[in-house]
């Protein structure tokens, strides 16, 4: 909706360009309901009127997550193959302005391909409707009109030899299927423009995703280890508090008991208290030592 067509402008190199602005509806729950799109179309000078058109469309979708990281290149090749038949070939490529990390890249590519499938499926449906409407209008014409139209078309035979010029064959090559020579040329010719940047086929995104997965696995392991150490530290501190409460309660109970009556009973009481204090002191030392070690590990 809200389509705005700017007029075609002829460039110095002979190509023609124009800008189209429109709004699309999105179904992704992580994106807004609508988004604005800027599409810059380039029609190459190799195009021949009524014979062949080659148009590259650079599509920038705004207001979507990570919209400043990527853009889309769609190539439309429309060729005349018969008197009443044309062939439309569409190839597309996802290009990056900034290189995202693994999870973000997989998210972008997944939504990119699903959106393209929906878009071109809709385009196919609309073209089918247009074709059906055109055939219905042709069938409604009178026989005389059909004959006159067919005779006129037969007299206007067009030569196809001029379509085989070298620069046209180069333009007709699809965006996503370069030859080996083009791949080598793009690898060597990495300039500031995004149009000349090329990621070699030998380094697919799967290798990058695998390294990211290993990194996430290591980070997860470290987090689990930290959680275990924190639980052990919490247990040691809880034991320390429990021991303190037990000692306080024991001393309170000892005060309420009957006092010793003889020197032997006093000696036994002092000996038992000494043993108890020694054992508690040893426990406290072990607990404090373990707590200090755990704190050092966590730090």
Automatic annotation (TrEMBL):
The residues covered by the VASt domain are 1-135
Give TM regions.
Answer: 215-235
Give the PROSITE patterns listed for this entry.
VAST
The Gene Ontology biological process annotation of the record reads: intracellular sterol transport
Q: Which organism is it from?
A: Thryothorus ludovicianus
What name appears for this protein in its UniProt entry?
GRM1B protein
GO cellular component terms listed in the entry, alphabetical order: endoplasmic reticulum membrane; endoplasmic reticulum-plasma membrane contact site; plasma membrane
- Cite a single GO MF annotation: cholesterol transfer activity
Q: Where in the cell does this protein reside?
A: Membrane
Q: What is the lineage of its organism?
A: Eukaryota, Metazoa, Chordata, Craniata, Vertebrata
């Amino acid at each position: 909706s809200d389509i705005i067509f700017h007029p075609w402008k002829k460039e110095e190199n002979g190509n023609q360009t124009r800008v189209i602005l429109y709004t699309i509806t999105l179904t992704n729950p992580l994106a807004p309901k609508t988004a604005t799109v800027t599409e810059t179309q380039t029609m190459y000078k190799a195009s021949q009127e009524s014979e062949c058109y080659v148009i590259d469309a650079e599509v920038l979708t705004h207001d979507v997550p990570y919209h400043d990281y990527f853009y889309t290149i769609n190539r439309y090749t429309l060729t005349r193959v018969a008197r009443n038949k044309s062939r439309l070939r569409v190839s597309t490529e996802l290009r990056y302005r900034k290189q995202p990390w693994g999870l973000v890249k997989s998210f972008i590519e997944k939504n990119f391909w699903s959106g393209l499938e929906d878009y071109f499926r809709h385009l196919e449906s609309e073209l089918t409707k247009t074709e059906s409407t055109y055939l219905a209008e042709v069938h409604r014409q009178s026989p005389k009109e059909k004959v006159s139209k067919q005779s006129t078309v037969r007299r206007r035979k067009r030569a196809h030899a001029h379509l085989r010029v070298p620069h046209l064959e180069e333009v007709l090559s699809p965006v996503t299927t370069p030859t080996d020579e083009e791949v080598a040329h793009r690898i060597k010719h990495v300039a500031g423009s995004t149009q000349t940047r090329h990621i070699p086929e030998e380094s697919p995104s799967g290798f990058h995703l695998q390294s990211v997965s290993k990194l996430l696995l290591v980070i997860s392991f470290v987090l689990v280890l930290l959680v275990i150490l924190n639980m052990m530290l919490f247990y040691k501190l809880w034991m320390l508090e429990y021991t303190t409460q037990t000692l306080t309660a024991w001393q309170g109970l000892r005060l309420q008991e009957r006092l010793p009556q003889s020197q032997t009973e006093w000696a036994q009481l002092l000996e038992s208290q000494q043993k108890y204090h020694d054992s508690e002191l040893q426990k406290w030392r072990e607990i404090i030592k373990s707590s200090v070690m755990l704190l050092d590990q966590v730090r």
